[in-house]
């Protein structure tokens, strides 16, 4: 099909290529996470006695004084961790932690806007409906929710059970035994290959004039921007009890690299337990450009799969219900690859409607939420300044993916780390600690410039 395999396509340059996905897996086969790399070592070292981590708690709101200055946070125990189940719905007496210099809210793109709104920071109409007094009129809070829109399609293969991690999902493998034996399958998440793709000019035209306009404006000359990311997962994401037991099934994932659709997340009441008003906004953009991206990507990944040596069919329940007699009909079982090297699968307008219906039925999250408290002027629905200060509020900073104004054409894990590192640098400088590293030696506690949580300042860092 003309797509080449490259060693690394995460170079901010290449497109229309595939790669074997690079991973963060140590020599011992253990995956890494932010908490165990940044936080746990400091807790275990004993060198940061002023670092306190309070777990199993929920932040209710940020405490603000009469000058709109953040002076602490109010929190309660998460009801899921209360000893007596009868206390789950009982009203708790909140507790508070005070801060002299700074409060940092880092509860994620879904958590931080709710904390701000419960604190009286947000759209006045939303706050009044929820019964929260307005402290700061900031309509951008909870606005502009973004996510990469995911669709998954399953295929039958000739792989062996050890080539996938389906055994962990369907119960055939004993997880405890695998841990005891240091089974190598524990070192993978089965996300083994991916690609970044852009349509041809002819394909752009076929998607209609509105799509052409969006393409010319945002993609055509930005050759580093993929339209879609397509990934191969060596496992089946779904209900394994519904699978035939005749083969190993795996999933193909399509997701929008730079979606246009926007949603929102807002409080509906002043209590943490009040369900939020959460609209993900999937496929709701003007002219349905995001939907057309998915239709194009479905056809592309299907042509790819039918050419793969491991192809042995398509799991019908995860594919569109094409009209009877369609040339695009699902092939449930095959002895090997099925394709015409000179031609792609043919689709009619009715076939496209079937694809659209399936996409609308299965579109889901990639857990890449961002943009709900974005860096921008308040008149553009911004919530924080470039220094991550909340507009109109003193001593309150945000540090999570909610501050990112636009999406990124990648998994957002690295983006979250970058936001955290940059935020730490900003906060350290504002607290006057940027020259503190290395001043203390030996047994004396060092004020490390790379760890704002280890300083002797009265800061509160709020997470979920």
From TrEMBL:
Q: Does the keyword Flavoprotein apply?
A: yes
Q: Where is this region: Disordered?
A: 436-464
Among its keywords, does the record have Nucleotide-binding?
no
Q: Where is the composition biased (Basic and acidic residues)?
A: 441-450
Which prosthetic group or cofactor does it need? FAD
> What is the top-level taxon of the source organism?
Eukaryota
GO MF entries: flavin adenine dinucleotide binding; oxidoreductase activity, acting on CH-OH group of donors
Q: What sequence ranges are listed for the domain Glucose-methanol-choline oxidoreductase N-terminal?
A: 108-122
**Keywords (A to Z) from UniProt:** FAD, Flavoprotein
A Pfam family name for this chain?
A: GMC_oxred_C
Sequence positions that bind FAD: 59, 367-368
Q: Which family does it belong to?
A: Belongs to the GMC oxidoreductase family.
Quote the protein name from its UniProt record. Glucose-methanol-choline oxidoreductase N-terminal domain-containing protein
Q: What is the originating organism of this protein?
A: Friedmanniomyces endolithicus
